[in-house]
TrEMBL record:
Species assigned in the record: Corynebacterium jeddahense
Domain Gp28/Gp37-like intervals: 21-515
Pfam family, one: Sipho_Gp37
Name of the featured protein: Gp28/Gp37-like domain-containing protein
Lineage top rank: taxon: Bacteria
Length: 545
């Protein structure tokens, strides 16, 4: 079994070639380096899964099959299923702000084409680490892990959006991989058994962790940056789908990385990693979807201010402090393009957002209590009623009370008054989102709708040489950057960074700034718009006393 080059060796390769590419097997063990490809792109996308694509030559010399192609296709193997099921990961490293910056992708498709004795080319595609969050159901009671009955109706967590995300994901990962950790006496006190609930960031509660049992761990270390208050209730929901509205509302960036032996320990006070491990993290970002300032004025003090009254009206303004970059620096990257790239300036479409459809638990409880009370009142006023008749009326009241659940719709209206003013008389009326009214979920779903109908700028431009700026060192996904065009500075968050590579060419980058949806092809844009405005208020919800 070949050994993974040391961190110093990989850093030397990156300094020499611009990047290091390797293949890992199903247990994240090193297989081989990759040096030959016809073209390659490795993407990273804001708040969603990104993909990679590599086009490999079938032969590296006449009659000499590419060893990676041979391994991927399992040429000569007697295992009939391995090529269809064995997990494979591609790892790419480039220069970063603290050593190499790493991306990893689990291979999804292998597409050999042409040739006779060997394929002429093999195209490999894969998905990055965010995909792990789309395959993580969140349990109502992750500490019980009973598949027959859960001891609680929902896992309700509240706090800053970053902390709620960290805690829900972290608790469930522990429940899947080391459930006994929930019932250890971590803190050394004599007060009885404790569960990993409120003290997820407390190193004492991690004493029982056996890191070798955990292939995925959510970091317990917060960024230290403020984020919006949120309440999220998990009930066997997909983690990505459940939390994404909160991320969109609060500007939270999910980060999924791969820790390899030789790397710095990510949370040494809590546990020590020894095996390759997927690490989940979260960080608030600026979420500035588009702004325009005068040239020379800079972008470091641009921020989004949310009205404290309605919690949804927002405007861009200058301030004394701004959200730092992921490298901990003040935002300062402004590209001065020789020729301005093609820019899409998108107008916002809606200002009023309706959220509701579910009958909140408190409404169901109140209505049921009122109906049962009415039945009891009727019984008390019928003279000479016998026990059978009284019981029949009482039973009928109970049945009617249960049938009444979810028949009362509750709706909240959220209006961005700044947008409403700017849309004027020609503005659209409203769009609706399903959610629970009179709850924190309502404002989060409204923010999701507001984000999906947002105005801003979209631009993608290729960078062969980012001098004096370097992706990974000076700016990363989610950071605010700007570029000078037509005498103005146009600024927005970095929504995608695609690493590109081709033989004989220096390593390159394609940077997406702002909401990338307006630069999609027309069919994809139309589908996205249909999904945004299509809302059906549903009564479906669980009834709990």
């Amino acid at each position: 079994m070949p050994t993974l080059p040391t961190r110093a060796e990989r850093e030397q390769i990156v300094r020499t070639r611009g990047q290091w590419v390797g293949v890992l097997d199903r247990d994240f063990q090193f297989v081989m380096e990759v040096e030959d490809w016809q073209s390659a792109s490795w993407g990273e996308v804001y708040q969603d899964t990104a993909n990679m694509q590599m086009v490999l030559p079938g032969e590296i010399a006449p009659g000499v099959q590419n060893p990676l192609v041979r391994w991927l296709l399992q040429t000569g193997s007697s295992d009939p299923d391995g090529v269809f099921h064995d997990a494979v990961t591609i790892v790419v490293e480039r220069r970063g702000y603290n050593g190499n910056l790493r991306r990893f992708y689990r291979i999804l498709d292998i597409i050999p084409e042409g040739g006779r004795d060997y394929p002429e080319t093999v195209t490999v595609t894969g998905l990055d680490g965010i995909e792990y969050l789309k395959h993580l159901p969140l349990w109502a009671d992750p500490s019980t892990r009973s598949k027959v009955v859960q001891m609680q109706f929902e896992d309700k967590q509240q706090g800053s959006a970053e902390w709620v995300s960290r805690k829900l994901v972290g608790r469930n990962l522990i429940g899947y991989q080391q459930p006994g950790m929930f019932h250890q006496l971590f803190d050394g006190s004599a007060t009885g058994l404790t569960a990993l609930t409120d003290g997820y960031d407390n190193p004492k509660r991690w004493r029982a962790m056996v890191p070798e049992m955990h292939r995925i761990i959510c970091s317990p270390i917060s960024s230290g940056l403020p984020s919006e208050w949120s309440v999220v209730c998990a009930r066997w929901d997909n983690a990505f789908d459940l939390l994404r509205p909160t991320w969109e509302a609060a500007g939270i960036l999910p980060i999924v990385s791969l820790w390899l032996p030789g790397d710095y320990q990510p949370f040494p006070d809590h546990t020590t990693l020894t095996l390759p491990t997927v690490v989940v993290d979260f960080r608030p970002v600026s979420m500035l979807s588009g702004a325009r300032t005068l040239a020379g004025q800079g972008i470091r003090s641009l921020t989004r201010k949310i009205d404290a009254g309605d919690q949804i009206t927002s405007a861009t303004e200058f301030s004394d402090a701004a959200t730092p970059t992921r490298a901990g620096k003040k935002p300062w990257v402004v590209f001065d393009c020789d020729e301005a790239p093609k820019v899409t300036l998108r107008k916002s479409t809606d200002s009023r957002f309706l959220v509701g459809g579910k009958s909140p638990k408190v409404v169901n409880t109140t209505v049921k209590a009122a109906i049962k009370g009415a039945a009891a009142y009727i019984i008390s006023f019928i003279p000479g009623i016998g026990p059978p008749v009284a019981e029949a009326i009482r039973t009928g009241g109970d049945i009617l009370a249960d049938l009444s659940a979810d028949h009362f719709l509750n709706l909240n209206e959220h209006i961005d008054r700044d947008r409403q003013r700017r849309h004027g008389r020609s503005g659209y009326l409203a769009i609706a989102k399903q959610g629970e009214a009179n709850s924190m979920e309502s404002i989060q779903k409204a923010w999701q709708a507001k984000t999906e109908t947002n105005g801003g700028l979209s631009v993608e431009f290729a960078i062969a040489d980012a001098y004096p700026y370097l992706p990974g060192r000076d700016f990363q996904l989610g950071d605010t950057v700007g570029f000078v065009a037509w005498g103005e500075v146009w600024a927005a968050y970095v929504s995608s960074i695609e690493w590109t590579s081709a033989p004989g060419e220096p390593v390159g980058f394609t940077v997406g700034v702002g909401d990338v949806r307006p630069v999609q092809d027309p069919e994809a844009l139309f589908a996205s718009n249909v999904e945004t405005i299509r809302g059906r208020l549903s009564r479906l919800t669980s009834t709990v006393d």
